[in-house]
């Protein structure tokens, strides 16, 4: 049986980002983020989705349903999470202004990249980690991730 592009994306396989189901999910996330980011005075119950309870300030993401934030987690302003696949952020972790957590990746082979296929690699950030302002964690990020408590799942 053939898998949908979304199923491929969630499994960390090569997928087509322009697939209608993926585009619809991105549009829904954009609409929610627009409301979220525009209404800083919103009551918590309306502004925060339960799995994003630690996101206390303006932030940006691809889908939001691939993000898990544990208890006591804090994320400051203008953070970006490209959640093509799972992003897990542990208890009491603090993420400073402008940090980027990017699961999105692209093939290294130019011929495959030219087809427009993409993929994702999950990111798990441990408990009680501090990530400084402007730090970028992405699919090719390898150095110092253990020191910071960042674990990346590799297919």
Structural description of this entry:
The chain is α/β, with parallel strands linked by helices and 155 residues long. The protein has one domain (5-152): 3 Solenoid (UDP N-Acetylglucosamine Acyltransferase, domain 1). Helices cover 24% and strands 25% of the residues. The chain has five helices and 14 strands. It has helices at 5-10, 20-38, 44-47, 110-113, 145-148; strands spanning 15-16, 59-61, 67-69, 74-75, 79-82, 87-89, 94-95, 100-102, 104-105, 117-120, 123-125, 130-131, 136-138, 150-152. The protein has a four-stranded parallel β-sheet. The protein has a four-stranded mixed β-sheet with strand order 3-6-11-14. The two termini are 21 Å apart. 28% of the residues are buried. The model is unreliable at 142-148 (pLDDT under 50). This is Maltose O-acetyltransferase. Residues 6-46 form the Maltose/galactoside acetyltransferase domain. InterPro entries: Hexapeptide_acetyltransf (IPR051159), Mac_dom (IPR024688), Trimer_LpxA-like_sf (IPR011004).
Q: What structural class do helix, strand and pairing data support?
A: alpha/beta
CATH fold-level topology: UDP N-Acetylglucosamine Acyltransferase, domain 1
Helix content: 10-25%
Main-sheet strand order equals 2-5-8-13
Along the chain, the helix and strand elements come as: HEHHEEEEEEEEHEEEEHE
* Low-confidence blocks of residues: 142-148
Return the average pLDDT rounded to an integer.
80
Organism: Candidatus Burkholderia pumila
EC number: 2.3.1.79
Family: Belongs to the transferase hexapeptide repeat family.
Protein name: Maltose O-acetyltransferase
């Amino acid at each position: 049986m053939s898998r949908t592009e979304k199923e491929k994306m969630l499994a960390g396989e090569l997928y087509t980002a322009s697939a209608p189901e993926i585009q619809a999910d991105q549009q829904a996330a954009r609409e929610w983020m627009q409301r979220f980011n525009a209404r800083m005075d919103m009551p918590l119950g309306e502004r925060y989705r339960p799995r994003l309870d630690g996101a206390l300030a303006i932030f940006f993401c691809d889908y939001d349903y691939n993000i898990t934030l544990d208890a006591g987690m804090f994320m400051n302003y203008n953070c970006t999470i490209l959640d093509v696949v799972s992003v897990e952020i542990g208890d009491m972790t603090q993420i400073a202004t402008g940090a980027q957590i990017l699961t999105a990746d692209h093939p290294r082979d130019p011929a495959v990249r030219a087809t427009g296929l993409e993929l994702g690699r999950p990111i798990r950030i441990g408990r009680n980690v501090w990530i400084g302002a402007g730090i970028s964690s992405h699919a090719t990020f390898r150095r110092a991730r253990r020191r910071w408590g960042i674990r990346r799942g590799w297919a």
